[in-house]
From TrEMBL:
Its cofactor is thiamine diphosphate. This is Transketolase. The keyword Lyase does not apply. The keyword Magnesium does not apply. Keywords: Thiamine pyrophosphate. It comes from the Bacteria.
């Protein structure tokens, strides 16, 4: 797992490069969700440029579409498109790498970013899989702020009704959204209890930025029968540098020169430390 831990920090560096080059980006949520995406794409899911048109491929929707930089960085690392083009053209006029996921790009299943839509669409995908007798799994990542959208809970009811055990949702529970603390804006109280009452199998991930904990949770989700699973991943918004960790004003922000230097230093140090650990364990 250690190489994935280091990879997540390398991908954070790619995100910083994109945001600085494109002069825009939802940096805080990119950082909180990175381990989730890394574990999904490099360990859990059967999806790649080679099988992207295979009807049996696993499917993923980035419901919190504003964390697109993290998503693009992972897809580029996976080989769906060239990292150099991504970094140099992101968010620029005429670029195909726009500020929310769009399915004209290889590897992107649906346009997203209009919050509350990812889970309902994934329910359709999961139900289709059941009806067609296919073995693929469907994953989606939602923000905790996104859960204020009513369509999420309509979807939650349907997923339970249709016993979609091929569906696994993840809540990026970083407790911050654009306008402040999630619990102050629209409180969720005990999300475990809420999803449980809707008939879901709920797995609490104490540290949603820990690859090992995420791995165990996704493995458990695969064993669940007769009901959908949701991971409540307790993450840190802006994870990776004290400059931006757990700060609401880093929801959408381009780092200044001084901030940028410190962020790059923090990420490089953490990546080197994890690479060293990986070599030691390997």
């Amino acid at each position: 797992m250690s190489n994935l831990k280091a990879l997540a920090y390398g991908l954070r560096e790619t995100v910083i490069d994109m945001i600085v080059e494109g002069k825009a980006g939802h940096i805080g949520g990119d950082m909180s969700v990175m381990e989730i995406l890394t574990e999904l794409y490099f360990c859990q899911m059967d999806v790649s440029p080679e099988n992207q048109d295979d009807p049996d491929r696993d499917k993923f929707v980035m419901s919190k579409g504003h964390s697109v930089e993290a998503y693009y960085a992972v897809l580029a690392e996976k080989g769906f498109f060239h990292k150099e083009e991504l970094v140099s053209t992101f968010s620029k006029f005429g670029s195909k790498f726009i500020g929310h996921p769009n399915n004209k790009l290889p590897g992107v299943e649906m346009n997203s970013g209009s919050l509350g839509h990812g889970l309902p669409v994934c329910i359709g995908m999961a139900l289709a899989g059941k009806m067609d007798g296919r073995g693929y799994r469907v994953y989606t990542v939602m923000g905790d702020g996104e859960l204020a959208e009513g369509s999420v809970w309509e979807g939650a009811m349907a997923a339970s009704q249709y016993r979609l055990d091929n569906l696994c949702a993840v809540v990026d529970r970083n407790r911050l959204q654009i306008s402040g603390g999630t619990e102050d804006v629209m409180g969720h109280d005990d999300l475990h209890e809420r999803f449980g009452s809707f008939g879901w199998h709920v797995i609490d991930v104490a540290d949603g930025n820990d690859i090992d904990e995420l791995h165990a949770a996704f493995e458990e989700a695969k064993t669940v029968k007769g009901q959908p699973t949701v991971l409540i991943a307790n993450t840190v918004k802006g994870k990776g540098s004290s400059v931006m960790e757990d700060k609401a004003n880093w929801h959408h922000k381009v780092p200044s020169g001084e901030e940028l230097a410190q962020i790059r230093k923090d990420l490089a140090e953490k990546k080197a430390e994890l690479e060293k650990e990986g070599a030691h364990h390997g």
